[in-house]
Input
Amino acid sequence: MATEAIEKVSIIVSHGSLEGVYPGLIMANGARMEGMEASLFFTFFGLDAIIKNRMQRLKVATVGNPAMHMPTLVGALPGMSSFATRMMKKEMEKLDIPPVDEFLAMIHDSGGELYACKASVDMFHLKKEDFWPGLDGVISVGQFYEKAAGGQIIFT
Output
């Protein structure tokens, strides 16, 4: 059975934690490197990845995160999220994974598209000037589906 090659992906980023944002960035970058069309749609707390004054301060979520393999009480200790974030960023640096703003620029410059969800932008009372300057626009869910037509939709 022959499988069809994926030619287009639309990735939804809805989590604003470090481990919630980077999978979408890595997948979009990988898609562009493979010659696929790629777009990112940031919604709800995923907007933190494209808000200028938040994008460099994303943290690892240590409370209620079963992948941390620690009791919630330990994750809630003061400084634990900052510690986990420093450790994760140190490991990412070793792998030459760029900071969020550089990653967004790489994706955008390679032809990837970056959009914010209009409903979330309105709900959080955000303005155009709040966002990273390379954002391609603020679009509705319907417009996102139009752009995603014919491709794979991926949730991170």
The mean pLDDT is 91. The longest strand covers residues 8-13.
